[in-house]
UniProtKB/TrEMBL annotation:
Pfam family, one: Cupin_5
Domain DUF985, residue spans: 12-139
Protein name: Cupin domain-containing protein
Organism listed in the record: Dyella kyungheensis
CDD domains: cupin_YML079wp
Transmembrane intervals: none
Protein origin, superkingdom: Bacteria
Length: 159
């Protein structure tokens, strides 16, 4: 499909994507809704995640490792902040090429944000052990770290 706007709408419909609290659109597809693991945290969870031009995934962290896999569209920039070493790494996630990764792993508890570098980017994000809201944290706008990250990555808007 050569019309990006039409493809974005097709993806939202066919993948049943909903607005995400971080920005963009998503749908959790594993484990499936209603899957009961007897109160035990699942080994892994996975979502489809779509960012359009002008959207971003706000600074956040989870208590588990997260693997970002590029699916389609144009590359996106995935930013990972290591608070222990006070360092910011920028990864270009897209079709495998020189200086472009098809997959990037975000360490557990690392701050992360993302933005599309073109019209849209569709990725699959897998979290292990499985994502839980108890293990999720959005960066507060008035946190000292928010001001620091705004200086390092002004292209990611404050929460």
């Amino acid at each position: 499909m050569s019309d990006p706007a039409a493809r974005i709408e097709e993806l939202k419909t066919s993948l049943q994507l909903q607005p995400h609290v971080e920005g963009g659109h998503y749908r959790r597809f594993h484990p499936s809704k209603g899957t009961d693991n007897g109160g035990v945290r699942q080994a892994m969870s996975a979502i489809h995640y779509l960012l359009e031009a002008g959207q971003c995934s706000s600074w956040h962290r989870v208590d588990a490792e997260e693997a970002w896999h590029f699916v389609e569209g144009e590359p996106l920039e995935l930013l990972i902040y290591d608070a222990d070493h006070k360092s910011l790494r920028r990864h270009c996630l897209g079709p495998l090429a020189a200086d472009v990764d098809a997959m990037v792993i975000v360490p557990a508890r690392a701050w992360q944000a993302a933005r599309p570098l073109g019209r849209y980017a569709l990725v699959t994000c897998m979290v292990a052990p499985a994502f839980t809201y108890d293990g999720f944290e959005m960066l507060e706008e008035d946190a000292p770290l928010a001001r620091h990250l705004a200086g390092l990555a002004p292209e990611i808007p404050a929460p």
